[in-house]
Amino acid sequence: MRIKQAASAEASGVWRVITASSVGTLIEWYDFYIFGSLATILSAQFFPKDNPTAGFLSTLATFAAGFIVRPFGALVFGRLGDLVGRKYTFLLTLVLMGGSTFLIGCVPDYETIGMLAPALVLLLRLVQGLALGGEYGGAATYVAEHSPDGRRGYFTSFIQTTATLGLFVSLGVILVTRQMMGTDKFAEWGWRVPFLLSALLVAVSIYIRLRMHESPLFQKIKKEGKISANPLKESFGKKGNLKMVLLALFGATAGQGVIWYTGQFYALSFIQKICNVEFAQSNYIIALALLVATPFFVIFGGLSDKIGRRNIMLAGMLLGVLTYRPIYKAMYNLADISQKFEEAPRRSIETKQERIDGTNEFKTTTSTVRYFTDGTTYREIQPQPGSASTAVTKEVTLGDQAFFLMTLFVFIQVLYVTMVYGPIAAFLVELFPTRIRYTSMSLPYHIGNGVFGGLTPFIATSLVETARKTGSPDAYLQGLWYPIGIALVCLVIGALYIDKKQYKTADD
């Protein structure tokens, strides 16, 4: 009876830890991903409007900058976490993330303050990256050190869901806000609301995290006087541990990173910018796929406790390598109106006149609307005379069947994400001893995800634009060579050098 009560109390304690850690981590991911979810709108707010493609690439570069500095955040906060403790370190990262996100929502646009606008956004984006560099390692370590033996994969997989759920929540808030205030007002100033809302979410999370207790394993080594005096030197100055860091990076996290960002962020960018799918519909596609696929993080995390982490992660990478090009070709064809049958008699020209807020002036837009037999609608909006931009806006609204198939293709990609990402936290935690775990696991994770993975949308989109300029017939597929190449390298190294069995640290 007492054994059952003790087991029940232990399980209850783990779930409290998971809930407290996950809420804060989810909010940090929400903060971090709002920027990427609104990339198409932010490019018009913070960069000159005379070259939309250059503005969009600049926005993706600013988005990527937050990823590039994540390894530095891992070093700074990882060291702090191994010296001071897990709890207070990722409490600090939460405050930094929430504050910088809120301030992005306050930055005036390019027309108001010129180049100072993108400079301020870049600075705040860098703070976000540093904060996230310290958050994930702390949350994953904290949950793992509360988890019972043999169930780390299952319990840490709940932390893994927070990245995808954070993206899902960001899309949800964006869509609800846009629906409530209308397309034009949202594009003009309503996009700031999701950023400003961060302050409220962070306040709630801080309250929850202040009630958390320090990790029992960290308390144990602290009591025994075994805390590392120099976590950075011990993590990267010792040959044996450095070998594990490099193996974690090039045999797991780099490949996992490109699979993650291809299946979610590049998919969104591809649907919006290359397929020209209407903004709200493209977000619904991603959000629905994320919602349906999210439980598989827990499924594959739990499965990794039984059959090991390696094979599940490598299988996800292999599937990405083999199927990305056919999947994205099929996605492109779903939105390609040249392959559809038009209902020519229904073609129409619409003229829309709206008052410009705060003035007595009106703006007029003219759009040609075409209808197709599968339910797809194509709208081509001509810029108004005197507009700073001369680019024609193309907008495809998919019919029901095409919408379902597009969602299915994104779901398949997110399924790969759950395979590589569900077991990764337990895999990394088990590679390193408690005294340097925060530092050692954070760096390869954030280089793999922040640099290799985070650069995926920018590099892939740049490759597509370059291929278009050279007249390549399948230019829209050229961006995929980057994630395919990185995943293939990781697949080979992981298969050759990672032990089939899950690792166990010496102090476990």
Tell me what the structure shows.
It is found in: Cell membrane. This is MFS transporter. The protein has 2 domains: 2-339 and 397-497, Growth Hormone, Chain: A, CATH 1.20.1250.20; 344-396, no CATH class. It has 22 helices and 4 strands. It has helices spanning 2-37, 39-46, 52-68, 70-83, 86-104, 110-113, 116-144, 152-181, 183-190, 192-196, 198-210, 216-223, 231-236, 239-274, 279-293, 295-307, 310-335, 400-421, 424-429, 437-453, 456-469, 481-497, and strands at residues 348-355, 362-371, 377-382, 393-397. The protein has a 4-stranded antiparallel β-sheet with strand order 1-2-3-4, with no helix packed on it. Helix 5 packs antiparallel against helix 7. The longest helix has 36 residues, at 2-37. It is globular and about 75 Å long.
Number of continuous helical runs? 22
Strand fraction equals 5-15%
CATH class identity of the largest domain: Mainly Alpha
Q: What is the CATH homologous superfamily assignment of the largest domain?
A: MFS general substrate transporter like domains
Helix content: over 70%
- Outline: globular
Low-confidence regions: 1-10
SSE layout and pairings?
Elements: H1 2-37, H2 39-46, H3 52-68, H4 70-83, H5 86-104, H6 110-113, H7 116-144, H8 152-181, H9 183-190, H10 192-196, H11 198-210, H12 216-223, H13 231-236, H14 239-274, H15 279-293, H16 295-307, H17 310-335, E1 348-355, E2 362-371, E3 377-382, E4 393-397, H18 400-421, H19 424-429, H20 437-453, H21 456-469, H22 481-497
Antiparallel strand pairs: 1-2, 2-3, 3-4
